[in-house]
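Recap for those who missed Tuesday's class. We walked through two folding examples back to back. For each one, the amino acid string is listed first and its predicted structure tokens come directly after. Nothing is annotated here on purpose, so try labeling regions yourself before you check the end of the notes.
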Amino acid sequence: MHPSLPFLGRLSLRDYIAVVLSFTALALESVLHIIVLFLPKPVINWFYRRSRALFHRASGQQKDRSEEKKASERILDARDFGELCSIYGYIHEEHVVLTKDGYLLGLHRLPSRKGERRRNPGASTGKPVVYLHHGLLMNSEVWDMTSGSETIGASSFLVGLTYANISSSRGNKYSKKSIHHGPNSIKFWDFSIDDFAWHDIPDSIEHILELTRAQKLSYIGFSQGTAQAFAALSIHPRLNEKVNVFIALAPAMSPPGLAAPIVDGLMKASPTLLFLFFGRKSILSSATMWQSIIYPPIFARMIDSSLIWLFGWHSTNITMNQKIAAYAHLYSFASVKSVVHWFQIMRNAAFQMYDDDVLSPVVRTSVSSYRPARFPTRNIVTPIVLFYGDSDSLVHIETMLAQLPDHTVAKALHTYEHLDILWGKDVHKDVIPEVVSALEYYCSKTDHDDAETDNVKMDTPVSE
């Protein structure tokens, strides 16, 4: 037993030490951030070159000139979604979704096959519609960053079958604008998974269907992108009529916790400690600076070490070239509040709405006087297909299936972890064909059901 201190009740002495060390590390990082901001660019470039030389000397690695390495470097150098698309020969469109609460969401559209240019941008293609949504701390670029010579970006792959719409959550690289608040205000970042579910997902789907003149679309989400859909479909019954299938990659609903026991215990004991560490705006906002000045292989090793420590993911299914290419695009802005929301979910082992009662007494009676509303996910009518890694520490499939409707289909991917489902070296064999098969089945089933409905309407006599 560790002695407990009265401040923040449930924290032990070890937890307090962790808090102090965390504050010290964050303070040091902030000081370094400020110093780097004032350094001349030639000085930064000198440190970059020296770190590169030291890395190659210490690792003893030979210069890699393979096709995969060249593809990795092209992805690494791409500045945005448009440049990533040009690597694969695709021409994209950009659209903006205005949510009902005033956020402007960036939407990327791939409407045509490789090398084709449409004469009427924004018009319907007549093909089935797919909507892809990224995970936490990500943006739409994660769907177009596969460097393997046998594979291509997931969104590009789907264009032959359908056409893809890739949306971005509020606050990230492509959606950092609101008609009410600027991104430097606390009010701009005052959002959680609730807001994604109430506004971002349904408003984006409505925009896409209006743009394409389609009646339904297929939803593909990754990680938090699946949680947003679980939540949105559960609280918007009419939304289920607009989605013919929901494909959840590395699904997230109520994760069991983190692999790092101190961080896991600390955040579950008091999720709002994150507000003390990171404030009430965006989380890890300096990450973009560090990934721009640190030599990419070193940055990739740092990310790998963090993933091992926090989640127990060793990412052996992802090649180093893929990591170097993808990790440089991995981070995008997210609100601290949305991360607090996740730790509330983990603490209560329930997929619930954000708990605003953060100042409630620490000592509770056996019968709680307040419980945040849970997302009624068993009410989802849309067909659900789950693809999860059997080595993913954030997925406890039995717990998840207990919270989902009986028509849910789940498929395990052997030895896969979380990020493997996006960037694993064998996704072109293990993941993409399964996703395409599910899309073909449910799209054709929808067309058949719609045709039967039309026939019934035509054959049914009008009552007088």
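Example two. Treat it independently of the first, because the proteins are unrelated.
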Amino acid sequence: MEPEKPTEPKGLLQTHELYKYILETNVYPREPESLKELRAVTEKHPWAVMSTAPDAGQMIEILLKITGAKKALEVGVFTGYSLLLTALTIPKDGKIVAIDMDREAYEIGRPIIQKAGVEHKIDFIESQALPALDKLLENPKNVGSFDYAFVDADKINYINYHERIMKLVKVNGIVVYDNTLWFGSVAQPEEMVLKEFKEGRVSTIQFNKSLVADPRIDISTVPLGDGLTICRRLY
């Protein structure tokens, strides 16, 4: 079952016909049924735009497989599209620490995660992200132990999340930040930016500049969904 508006561009690709072509010829034929179901359920949520775009999810799946990720961290869960995708992709004995302060949204997708048989891989922590990340760092076994991290949370704290995640992710580990092009507003003149995007635009621009200046990582920003920045920890 497809969402009601499956061809609505999430962020940067503004040609509906081209986006529809990408989804229908490349993404949807390979998307597991459980992810299709979760997408359809999420589409009914008033904040459905917060969900990970399926074309971005396809890229994440490839990264997980290439790196052989087994232990993952997710900051910002919403209804769980990227979480379910990760749980389906990592090995049977893989684990995901998932942090979100909104359990109600997570519970929307949880029955589908359970039905997919991967809930045992997930440790959901209902909390604001910063104290939860600090708590993880208190255990020396967590330092440098994560193979992969995905961040899709409040943009104002991305810089703070990054500093903690650099300690949690292993050398050569991958970190993916979502929404790093913020509906294209990062490249718009300030006076042209819609009011509801202004605060996030400022935070996102500052964060993008900080990543470029960070010698600890390789980076690549790709225009999938609302913009993904992929980082590899170098040291």
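Answers for example two:
The longest helix spans residues 195-212.
Residues 1-7 have pLDDT under 50 and may be disordered.
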